[in-house]
Design goal:
The complex is a heterodimer. By secondary structure, chain A is mostly helical. Chain A has 8 helices and no strands. In chain A, helix 2 crosses helix 6. Chain B is mainly alpha-helical. The chains are: A mainly alpha, B mainly alpha.
Chain lengths: ~180, ~160
Protein backbone atom coordinates (compact mmCIF):
# COMPACT_ATOMS: atom_id res chain seq x y z
CA UNK A 1 0.00 0.00 0.00
CA UNK A 2 1.29 3.43 -0.95
CA UNK A 3 2.30 5.69 1.99
CA UNK A 4 -0.13 8.39 0.80
CA UNK A 5 -3.01 5.88 0.73
CA UNK A 6 -1.99 4.62 4.18
CA UNK A 7 -2.13 8.17 5.58
CA UNK A 8 -5.51 8.75 3.97
CA UNK A 9 -6.85 5.51 5.44
CA UNK A 10 -5.55 6.44 8.89
CA UNK A 11 -7.26 9.86 8.65
CA UNK A 12 -10.53 8.23 7.62
CA UNK A 13 -10.30 5.77 10.52
CA UNK A 14 -9.61 8.64 12.93
CA UNK A 15 -12.67 10.49 11.67
CA UNK A 16 -14.57 7.22 12.30
CA UNK A 17 -15.76 7.21 8.71
CA UNK A 18 -18.08 4.22 8.14
CA UNK A 19 -16.24 1.27 6.65
CA UNK A 20 -12.78 2.82 7.02
CA UNK A 21 -11.53 0.50 9.72
CA UNK A 22 -13.09 -2.45 7.92
CA UNK A 23 -10.99 -1.48 4.90
CA UNK A 24 -7.89 -1.37 7.10
CA UNK A 25 -8.63 -4.88 8.42
CA UNK A 26 -9.18 -6.17 4.88
CA UNK A 27 -5.96 -4.56 3.72
CA UNK A 28 -3.71 -6.05 6.41
CA UNK A 29 -5.49 -9.22 7.59
CA UNK A 30 -3.60 -11.59 5.26
CA UNK A 31 -0.22 -10.32 6.32
CA UNK A 32 -1.10 -10.19 10.04
CA UNK A 33 -2.67 -13.64 9.98
CA UNK A 34 0.19 -15.26 8.08
CA UNK A 35 2.84 -13.60 10.24
CA UNK A 36 1.18 -14.80 13.44
CA UNK A 37 0.44 -18.30 12.14
CA UNK A 38 4.08 -18.71 11.13
CA UNK A 39 5.40 -17.41 14.43
CA UNK A 40 3.31 -18.89 17.24
CA UNK A 41 3.61 -22.50 18.28
CA UNK A 42 -0.12 -23.01 18.85
CA UNK A 43 -1.82 -22.30 15.51
CA UNK A 44 -5.30 -22.58 17.01
CA UNK A 45 -4.58 -19.24 18.70
CA UNK A 46 -3.88 -17.47 15.40
CA UNK A 47 -7.32 -15.94 14.87
CA UNK A 48 -7.62 -14.71 18.47
CA UNK A 49 -4.19 -13.14 18.30
CA UNK A 50 -4.87 -11.55 14.90
CA UNK A 51 -8.07 -10.04 16.32
CA UNK A 52 -6.10 -8.80 19.31
CA UNK A 53 -3.70 -7.07 16.91
CA UNK A 54 -6.55 -5.22 15.19
CA UNK A 55 -8.11 -4.33 18.55
CA UNK A 56 -4.80 -2.74 19.59
CA UNK A 57 -4.59 -0.94 16.26
CA UNK A 58 -8.10 0.45 16.78
CA UNK A 59 -7.26 1.64 20.28
CA UNK A 60 -3.89 3.05 19.24
CA UNK A 61 -4.93 4.88 16.05
CA UNK A 62 -5.80 8.16 17.84
CA UNK A 63 -2.24 8.17 19.23
CA UNK A 64 -0.52 7.08 16.01
CA UNK A 65 1.65 10.05 15.11
CA UNK A 66 2.47 8.91 11.62
CA UNK A 67 6.24 9.12 12.11
CA UNK A 68 6.56 5.52 10.92
CA UNK A 69 4.53 3.91 8.17
CA UNK A 70 1.23 2.34 9.16
CA UNK A 71 2.42 -1.08 7.99
CA UNK A 72 5.58 -0.79 10.10
CA UNK A 73 3.53 0.14 13.14
CA UNK A 74 1.26 -2.87 12.51
CA UNK A 75 4.27 -5.23 12.23
CA UNK A 76 5.51 -3.86 15.54
CA UNK A 77 2.16 -4.63 17.17
CA UNK A 78 2.27 -8.16 15.69
CA UNK A 79 5.76 -8.65 17.14
CA UNK A 80 4.58 -7.46 20.58
CA UNK A 81 1.50 -9.70 20.51
CA UNK A 82 3.58 -12.73 19.49
CA UNK A 83 6.20 -12.05 22.18
CA UNK A 84 3.49 -11.62 24.80
CA UNK A 85 1.79 -14.83 23.68
CA UNK A 86 5.06 -16.70 24.01
CA UNK A 87 5.72 -15.47 27.53
CA UNK A 88 2.11 -16.16 28.56
CA UNK A 89 2.31 -19.67 27.10
CA UNK A 90 5.50 -20.26 29.07
CA UNK A 91 3.79 -19.02 32.24
CA UNK A 92 0.85 -21.34 31.62
CA UNK A 93 3.33 -24.11 31.09
CA UNK A 94 1.65 -24.80 27.83
CA UNK A 95 4.68 -24.21 25.72
CA UNK A 96 5.44 -27.76 24.81
CA UNK A 97 9.05 -28.32 23.94
CA UNK A 98 9.06 -29.40 20.36
CA UNK A 99 11.72 -31.81 19.36
CA UNK A 100 12.61 -32.81 15.86
CA UNK A 101 12.55 -36.38 17.08
CA UNK A 102 9.32 -35.93 19.02
CA UNK A 103 7.65 -39.39 19.34
CA UNK A 104 4.29 -37.67 18.73
CA UNK A 105 5.37 -36.69 15.28
CA UNK A 106 5.19 -40.35 14.21
CA UNK A 107 8.13 -39.79 11.97
CA UNK A 108 10.55 -42.63 11.53
CA UNK A 109 14.10 -42.14 12.78
CA UNK A 110 16.46 -40.87 10.12
CA UNK A 111 18.61 -43.95 10.38
CA UNK A 112 15.77 -46.30 9.48
CA UNK A 113 14.70 -44.69 6.26
CA UNK A 114 16.19 -43.24 3.18
CA UNK A 115 17.93 -39.90 3.76
CA UNK A 116 15.78 -38.23 1.13
CA UNK A 117 12.63 -37.42 3.05
CA UNK A 118 9.51 -36.61 1.14
CA UNK A 119 8.67 -32.90 0.89
CA UNK A 120 5.77 -33.30 3.27
CA UNK A 121 7.92 -34.81 5.98
CA UNK A 122 10.62 -32.28 5.37
CA UNK A 123 8.16 -29.39 5.69
CA UNK A 124 6.87 -30.87 8.93
CA UNK A 125 10.40 -31.05 10.27
CA UNK A 126 11.05 -27.52 9.08
CA UNK A 127 8.05 -26.21 11.03
CA UNK A 128 9.25 -28.01 14.15
CA UNK A 129 12.77 -26.68 13.67
CA UNK A 130 11.44 -23.13 13.31
CA UNK A 131 9.62 -23.52 16.63
CA UNK A 132 12.99 -24.27 18.24
CA UNK A 133 14.45 -20.95 17.16
CA UNK A 134 14.50 -17.94 19.51
CA UNK A 135 11.37 -15.75 19.20
CA UNK A 136 13.24 -12.95 17.44
CA UNK A 137 14.63 -15.32 14.80
CA UNK A 138 11.20 -16.87 14.24
CA UNK A 139 9.53 -13.57 13.52
CA UNK A 140 12.39 -12.60 11.21
CA UNK A 141 12.03 -15.84 9.25
CA UNK A 142 8.24 -15.45 9.16
CA UNK A 143 8.40 -11.85 8.03
CA UNK A 144 11.23 -12.13 5.52
CA UNK A 145 9.59 -14.89 3.55
CA UNK A 146 6.23 -13.16 3.37
CA UNK A 147 5.55 -11.02 0.35
CA UNK A 148 5.68 -7.35 1.05
CA UNK A 149 8.04 -7.42 4.00
CA UNK A 150 11.42 -5.97 3.14
CA UNK A 151 14.56 -5.92 5.31
CA UNK A 152 13.90 -2.20 5.86
CA UNK A 153 10.35 -2.85 7.11
CA UNK A 154 11.59 -5.51 9.52
CA UNK A 155 14.41 -3.30 10.77
CA UNK A 156 12.02 -0.42 11.41
CA UNK A 157 9.40 -2.63 13.04
CA UNK A 158 11.92 -4.35 15.30
CA UNK A 159 13.80 -1.11 15.91
CA UNK A 160 17.07 -2.72 14.90
CA UNK A 161 19.76 -1.54 12.48
CA UNK A 162 19.42 -2.96 8.97
CA UNK A 163 22.74 -4.79 9.26
CA UNK A 164 21.67 -6.46 12.50
CA UNK A 165 18.46 -7.70 10.88
CA UNK A 166 20.41 -9.23 7.99
CA UNK A 167 22.96 -10.82 10.32
CA UNK A 168 20.28 -12.24 12.60
CA UNK A 169 18.35 -13.61 9.65
CA UNK A 170 21.45 -15.38 8.31
CA UNK A 171 22.17 -16.76 11.78
CA UNK A 172 18.58 -17.99 12.05
CA UNK A 173 18.86 -19.78 8.72
CA UNK A 174 22.20 -21.27 9.67
CA UNK A 175 20.70 -22.54 12.92
CA UNK A 176 17.79 -24.00 10.95
CA UNK A 177 20.19 -25.67 8.53
CA UNK A 178 22.05 -27.21 11.45
CA UNK A 179 18.78 -28.39 13.04
CA UNK A 180 17.78 -30.02 9.76
CA UNK A 181 21.21 -31.52 9.16
CA UNK A 182 20.74 -34.91 7.61
CA UNK A 183 17.26 -34.11 6.35
CA UNK A 184 18.09 -31.58 3.67
CA UNK A 185 19.54 -32.71 0.36
CA UNK B 1 45.51 -19.96 4.43
CA UNK B 2 44.73 -23.46 5.65
CA UNK B 3 41.62 -25.39 4.57
CA UNK B 4 40.07 -25.07 8.07
CA UNK B 5 40.41 -21.29 8.13
CA UNK B 6 38.88 -21.06 4.69
CA UNK B 7 35.96 -23.25 5.70
CA UNK B 8 35.28 -21.07 8.76
CA UNK B 9 35.42 -17.92 6.64
CA UNK B 10 33.17 -19.39 3.96
CA UNK B 11 30.67 -20.71 6.52
CA UNK B 12 29.59 -17.14 7.30
CA UNK B 13 28.94 -16.49 3.61
CA UNK B 14 26.89 -19.61 2.88
CA UNK B 15 23.48 -18.10 3.76
CA UNK B 16 23.94 -14.79 1.89
CA UNK B 17 25.21 -16.70 -1.18
CA UNK B 18 22.30 -19.17 -1.01
CA UNK B 19 19.82 -16.30 -0.76
CA UNK B 20 21.37 -14.67 -3.81
CA UNK B 21 22.40 -11.61 -1.84
CA UNK B 22 26.11 -12.17 -2.31
CA UNK B 23 28.10 -13.26 -5.32
CA UNK B 24 31.16 -15.27 -4.27
CA UNK B 25 34.45 -13.68 -5.30
CA UNK B 26 37.22 -15.66 -6.96
CA UNK B 27 38.75 -16.92 -3.69
CA UNK B 28 35.43 -18.12 -2.26
CA UNK B 29 34.41 -19.63 -5.60
CA UNK B 30 37.73 -21.50 -5.76
CA UNK B 31 37.21 -22.80 -2.25
CA UNK B 32 33.67 -23.92 -3.03
CA UNK B 33 34.85 -25.80 -6.11
CA UNK B 34 37.43 -27.74 -4.15
CA UNK B 35 35.77 -28.20 -0.73
CA UNK B 36 33.01 -30.81 -0.86
CA UNK B 37 31.87 -30.01 2.68
CA UNK B 38 31.27 -26.29 1.98
CA UNK B 39 29.68 -27.10 -1.38
CA UNK B 40 27.25 -29.48 0.34
CA UNK B 41 26.50 -26.84 2.98
CA UNK B 42 25.70 -24.35 0.23
CA UNK B 43 23.40 -26.88 -1.44
CA UNK B 44 21.60 -27.48 1.85
CA UNK B 45 21.28 -23.74 2.43
CA UNK B 46 19.75 -23.32 -1.05
CA UNK B 47 17.37 -26.19 -0.37
CA UNK B 48 16.37 -24.58 2.93
CA UNK B 49 15.86 -21.21 1.23
CA UNK B 50 13.56 -22.88 -1.32
CA UNK B 51 11.58 -24.61 1.43
CA UNK B 52 11.19 -21.36 3.35
CA UNK B 53 9.95 -19.57 0.22
CA UNK B 54 7.48 -22.38 -0.44
CA UNK B 55 6.06 -22.41 3.08
CA UNK B 56 2.29 -22.23 3.00
CA UNK B 57 0.79 -18.87 3.78
CA UNK B 58 -2.11 -19.46 6.21
CA UNK B 59 -5.12 -17.40 5.15
CA UNK B 60 -7.64 -15.84 7.55
CA UNK B 61 -11.15 -17.37 7.57
CA UNK B 62 -13.75 -15.67 5.32
CA UNK B 63 -15.64 -14.13 8.26
CA UNK B 64 -12.50 -12.72 9.86
CA UNK B 65 -13.19 -9.04 9.05
CA UNK B 66 -16.81 -9.03 10.26
CA UNK B 67 -15.91 -10.97 13.41
CA UNK B 68 -13.08 -8.54 14.16
CA UNK B 69 -15.30 -5.50 13.66
CA UNK B 70 -17.93 -7.04 15.99
CA UNK B 71 -15.25 -7.70 18.59
CA UNK B 72 -14.06 -4.09 18.39
CA UNK B 73 -17.62 -2.80 18.75
CA UNK B 74 -18.22 -5.04 21.77
CA UNK B 75 -14.97 -3.85 23.33
CA UNK B 76 -16.05 -0.23 22.73
CA UNK B 77 -19.41 -0.79 24.41
CA UNK B 78 -17.75 -2.50 27.34
CA UNK B 79 -15.36 0.43 27.71
CA UNK B 80 -18.27 2.90 27.61
CA UNK B 81 -20.15 0.85 30.22
CA UNK B 82 -17.10 0.87 32.48
CA UNK B 83 -16.69 4.65 32.05
CA UNK B 84 -20.40 5.17 32.83
CA UNK B 85 -20.22 2.94 35.87
CA UNK B 86 -17.12 4.72 37.20
CA UNK B 87 -18.73 8.15 36.58
CA UNK B 88 -22.02 7.23 38.28
CA UNK B 89 -20.24 5.58 41.21
CA UNK B 90 -18.02 8.64 41.65
CA UNK B 91 -21.05 10.93 41.57
CA UNK B 92 -22.86 8.86 44.24
CA UNK B 93 -19.73 8.66 46.36
CA UNK B 94 -19.20 12.44 46.08
CA UNK B 95 -22.83 13.08 47.07
CA UNK B 96 -22.58 10.78 50.07
CA UNK B 97 -19.28 12.37 51.13
CA UNK B 98 -20.78 15.85 50.87
CA UNK B 99 -23.84 14.86 52.91
CA UNK B 100 -21.66 13.19 55.52
CA UNK B 101 -19.36 16.21 55.70
CA UNK B 102 -22.31 18.56 56.15
CA UNK B 103 -23.79 16.37 58.84
CA UNK B 104 -20.47 16.20 60.72
CA UNK B 105 -20.01 19.97 60.37
CA UNK B 106 -23.51 20.62 61.72
CA UNK B 107 -22.91 18.29 64.66
CA UNK B 108 -19.55 19.84 65.58
CA UNK B 109 -20.55 23.53 65.21
CA UNK B 110 -23.90 23.27 66.98
CA UNK B 111 -25.57 24.61 63.86
CA UNK B 112 -27.96 21.67 63.86
CA UNK B 113 -30.03 23.15 66.76
CA UNK B 114 -29.98 26.55 65.03
CA UNK B 115 -31.12 24.78 61.86
CA UNK B 116 -34.04 23.18 63.69
CA UNK B 117 -35.14 26.59 65.06
CA UNK B 118 -34.83 28.16 61.60
CA UNK B 119 -36.91 25.34 60.15
CA UNK B 120 -39.64 25.85 62.77
CA UNK B 121 -39.80 29.61 62.07
CA UNK B 122 -39.91 28.96 58.34
CA UNK B 123 -42.80 26.45 58.58
CA UNK B 124 -44.89 28.66 60.92
CA UNK B 125 -44.38 31.69 58.62
CA UNK B 126 -45.35 29.62 55.60
CA UNK B 127 -48.55 28.46 57.34
CA UNK B 128 -49.50 32.07 58.20
CA UNK B 129 -48.85 33.16 54.62
CA UNK B 130 -51.02 30.32 53.28
CA UNK B 131 -53.88 31.36 55.60
CA UNK B 132 -53.69 34.94 54.31
CA UNK B 133 -53.50 33.98 50.62
CA UNK B 134 -56.18 31.26 50.54
CA UNK B 135 -59.27 33.58 50.35
CA UNK B 136 -57.84 35.46 47.35
CA UNK B 137 -56.88 32.30 45.39
CA UNK B 138 -59.97 32.32 43.05
CA UNK B 139 -59.21 35.92 42.12
CA UNK B 140 -55.56 35.13 41.32
CA UNK B 141 -56.62 32.07 39.31
CA UNK B 142 -59.08 34.13 37.26
CA UNK B 143 -56.50 36.82 36.54
CA UNK B 144 -53.95 34.20 35.46
CA UNK B 145 -56.57 32.62 33.16
CA UNK B 146 -57.30 35.97 31.51
CA UNK B 147 -53.59 36.63 30.91
CA UNK B 148 -53.10 33.13 29.39
CA UNK B 149 -56.11 33.60 27.05
CA UNK B 150 -54.85 37.05 25.99
CA UNK B 151 -51.36 35.70 25.29
CA UNK B 152 -52.89 32.78 23.35
CA UNK B 153 -54.97 35.11 21.17
CA UNK B 154 -51.92 37.29 20.48
CA UNK B 155 -49.84 34.25 19.52
CA UNK B 156 -52.61 32.90 17.26
CA UNK B 157 -53.10 36.28 15.58
CA UNK B 158 -49.36 36.79 14.97
CA UNK B 159 -48.87 33.25 13.56
CA UNK B 160 -51.94 33.66 11.29
CA UNK B 161 -50.53 36.94 10.00
CA UNK B 162 -47.24 35.27 9.28
CA UNK B 163 -49.09 32.72 7.11
Amino acid sequence: MEPARERELVDRCRREEPGAFEELVDQFKHLVFALIARTVADRSRTEDLAQDVFLRIHRGLPYFRGEARLSTWIYRIVINVCSQERSEAQTRGAARQVSLDDPDSHLPAPSTVDRRFSDFELRDRLEKAIQQLPAQYRILIAGHYLQGLQYEDLAEAMQLPLGTVKTQLHRAKRQLRELLEGHLK
Amino acid sequence: MTRDVSCVAVADLIEPIAAGELTPDATVAAHLSTCASCRAALERARDLDRLLRERTVPAPPPQFTSRTIQLIQRAGWRREQIVDWVFNSSLIAAGLLLAMGLWIALQHTGLSSFGRDAFDIFTSDMAALAQRVTPSLPLYAGATGLIVVALGLWWWASSDAAL
